[in-house]
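Weekly modeling sync, notes
Attendees: S.R. (lead), two postdocs, one rotation student

Agenda item 3: backlog of single-chain predictions. S.R. asked that every request posted to the team notebook include the full sequence so nobody has to chase files. The rotation student volunteered to paste the first one in as an example of the format we agreed on. Action items at the bottom.

Example entry:
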Amino acid sequence: SINRFLKTELKPVLTVSPSWLNPGASVTLSCEVKPSSAGWRFYWYKAVPDLSKNNYRYDLLPGSINGSVENSFKIDGQKQTAGFTCKAGRGNPEYLTDYSEPQFVWSEDPHPAASLSVSPDREQHFTSESVTLNCGGNSAEWRVKGFREINQESFVSDCSNWGNMTGSSCTINRDWCHKAVYWCESETGE
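Predicted structure, as returned to the notebook:
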């Protein structure tokens, strides 16, 4: 039926603007349902790493409990790198779309608690060469984490799944050739 289609297969597209921001600036989320966003209510979520499941959980953002008729949502005073997602609903009873794919806003913090550097330092890398991710900052112990999507599912994993962690550095296995987002995490989870 058309309702079943709306509930299980429709997936909105989320965009964030800006994708890079100065700490404390505003971020605007926009959620689009194709072919038309008219007639939908939109719900906005923060994507929070759930390390026990190597995935993300989605926490409803304040002010989004009842949804919004507008397909955009403004967040003031965003300070840190964060992931967001959205979904939409309409009708009575309300039929909901799937969550959108998570999108991230990256903070240009001039004094980050952690830093990640890549060796060799260039944009393109090949499977024939060794690539190392190095963590720096005020921590005695670091973990390197990675986020990637497989068949529209989001997963978080640590270096031991796709590389070798030595001290504060992770050397990626040469047979690992996936697009992913990487970051450093201290022993306190920061």
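Discussion: group reviewed the output briefly. Helices lie at 2-8.
Action items: rotation student to repeat for the remaining queue; S.R. to check formatting next week.
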